[in-house]
Amino acid sequence: MIQEFKDFIAKGNVMDMAVGIIIGAAFTAIVQSLVQDMINPIVGLFTGGIDFTNLYWTMGDASYASLDAAREAGATVFAYGSFITAIINFFIIAFVVFMLVKMVNRVKSAAEKPDEVAPEVETGPSQLDILIDIRDALKK
User: Fold this and answer.
1) pLDDT tens, residue by residue, 32-70
2) Which domains does the chain have, with CATH numbers?
3) What is the pTM of this model?
4) How far is CA 62 from CA 49, 51, 56, 68, in A?
């Protein structure tokens, strides 16, 4: 049974999946930083300085200076700004994955495409053709 498990783990698909999960986790951190540190400020510029990550609604009468302050106080909050940020993250990740898949498919199709066959170049008559011509000329 241990040998079967080793064979299963050693298969290419399992190893590829493990590498994909690890790369995906690292890639998620990069995309989150891209969204939070670069895209949200640009979107905030166009929306009048609104910071999506700090948009929330407190379920109750109390008001707080920020989302973090409301959470520290134990208030029940509806953090719709975080949801908007998650949607932006999703669309960016989906677009980047689409571009990666498109690039990989292009590379695969180029690798699978057979090499172009060089056109045949006429080299003149073969030795056999010359001998047949000589024979025919001698018969005359």
Assistant:
1) 787 778 877 787 788 777 667 778 888 878 888 888 888
2) 2-112 (1.10.1200.120)
3) 0.53
4) 24, 21, 13, 14
